[in-house]
Amino acid sequence: MATMADIAKMAGVSIATVSRVLNYDDKVVASDETRRKIFEAAESLNYTKHINKKTARREKIAIVQWSSQEEELNDIYYMSIRLGAEKYAQEHGLSISRVYAEYEKIPGDVEGILAIGKFSKQQIQVLQSFQKPICFVDTYYEVGSADQVMVDFEQAVKDVIDYFVQQGHQRIGYIGSLAEDEMNSGIDPRSLEYTRYMQKLGLYRKEDVFDFKGKYDVRAGYQQMISAIRNRGDHLPTAFFIANDPMAIGSLKALHENNIRVPEQVSLIGFNDVSVSQYTVPALSTVKVYTEVMGEEGVALLLERINSREIPKKVRLGTKLAIRESSK
After folding, report:
1. I need a labelling partner for 75 at 20 to 30 A (CA). Which of 39, 116, 121, 308 fits?
2. pLDDT of 9
3. Burial 163-197 (b: 16+ CB within 10 A, else e)
4. Residue 194, helix vs strand vs coil
5. Are 44 and 83 in contact (CB under 8 A)?
């Protein structure tokens, strides 16, 4: 694990600034550029792959993020996928064009497109209109003949709930979205699997699900946990599975402000294991998604497709529980 001093040195800022940014402190005065440097430094220092000798290639690819640069800072999960993809591409001597949200800016001379994020049906059609080989990473809609890299959500959610049950929890809440999102990208598979598996175990309680539509960011997690505290009172679940780490960090803040001890009174497990999860107080338990591998696998599949593979591949990657102080 990289220290805050390591991150500060790489980003060229103070340790105090690193601490505040990684804990999403509202009082921090830092530009988006400074925040980006800190997040990228944290991700890069936690990226364990060794750089291989570059091989001579001429391919040029576009790495397309479904969100804007500003939105990428609010959920650095996608940043970490992008960094893994870019490192792999650089190792293999590829030329990269980075594009955020504005798909018309995809250069016409690219030989393939790596599309990262939860693209809608309409966005998928726009990307396919370029008539280039495409690999979608973390898109769960049907994408036709394109390649896909996905997470095994079914097993990941099962692992979280099984862990909570083994720890003696019977009231396991959820913060996420049970509705098709505003981008028309479908229902979050984490929500579907939570509902399905909790019902199978006979533990599902609708009143313990805090469902909303909107961005999965720190503010949303804070607001939903405040709602849970106010509405459930003495019947607040003793454990929460939260759909991503930024929301889990916001939930930690809400619990702290209301003098609810974590994990003594409420245990939390987030999802993604972005680098900042290690620096929260208490450190956040989460589901580790191998984001760098997702990026690598996406570029590798794209290269195969550029080099004449015709049959599409769908790769589903496993996860691992990272148990830290928030759920011990």
Report:
1. 121
2. 81
3. bbeeeebebbbbbbbbeebeeebbebbbbbbbbeb
4. helix
5. yes
Task: Answer yes or no: are the C-beta atoms of 291 and 77 closer than 8 Å.
Answer: yes
Q: 3-state class of 122 per DSSP? A: helix
Provide the 8-state DSSP code for 280.
Answer: S
**What pLDDT, in 10s, does the model give residues 64-119?**
998 888 888 777 889 999 999 999 898 888 999 999 988 888 999 999 999 999 88
E-only strand ranges, 186-263: 209-211, 239-242
Q: Which two tokens stand for residue 32?
A: 């988006």
pLDDT of residue 51: 42
**Count of residues making up the chain:** 328
The mean of the pLDDT values for the chain is: 87
Q: Which residues does 236 contact at the CB level (< 8 Å), separation at least 6?
A: 171, 173, 228, 229, 260, 266
Tokens at residue 177, please? 């979205």
SS3 breakdown of the chain: % helix, strand, coil, rounded to 5? 45, 15, 40
CB 254 within 8 A of CB 175: no
- Per the CB < 8 A criterion, the answer to whether 76 and 97 are in contact is no
pLDDT one-digit tens code per residue, 150-207: 999 999 999 999 999 999 999 999 999 887 655 545 678 999 999 999 999 999 999 9
Q: Which one-letter amino acid corresponds to residue 180?
A: E
The amino acid sitting at 288 is K
